[in-house]
Here is the input.
Amino acid sequence: MDDSYNKELVFRKAIEVDIPNIVKLLADDELGSKRENYKVPLPNSYYDAFQNIVLDKNQELIILENSNKEIIGSLQLTFIPYLTYRGGLRSQIEAVRVHKKFRGKGFGKKILKWAIKRSINKGAHLVQLTTNKKRPDAIEFYKALGFRDSHMGMKLSL
Here is the structure.
């Protein structure tokens, strides 16, 4: 990767002014374009959701930006306390996105490695994620980082 992309990369918690850019990232693929409602101005539901995330101590909405303050990517990290594993802590990675301008340059790997390290630092014993079966490239990407399809995920749309 070109060193100019590594200079002054910053991982930080998202702030309210980041929400339009995050929603734009979420909507910028075949699946996301069908479920997100990116428009200007954004629907208030996105800001309401952001407030719920900010108020929940187990949620972190994270931005990766460069020295020019360009948003390279984002993800949501959820810490799930539970009784199994002797009262363990599980980390759930969701909504990993990299801006199309920065794809193929190793930023997705940087984002995932950061999330894994953050999970370890919080005391999680396990990191999990889900990805849509219609994203074969993402599945291979996660496998290359050591994730295994050890369970079968199921959903019920409401």
Q: What stands out?
A: The helical segments are 19-27, 32-35, 44-55, 84-87, 107-122, 136-144. The chain has one domain: 3-144. Residues 107-122 form the longest helix (16 residues).
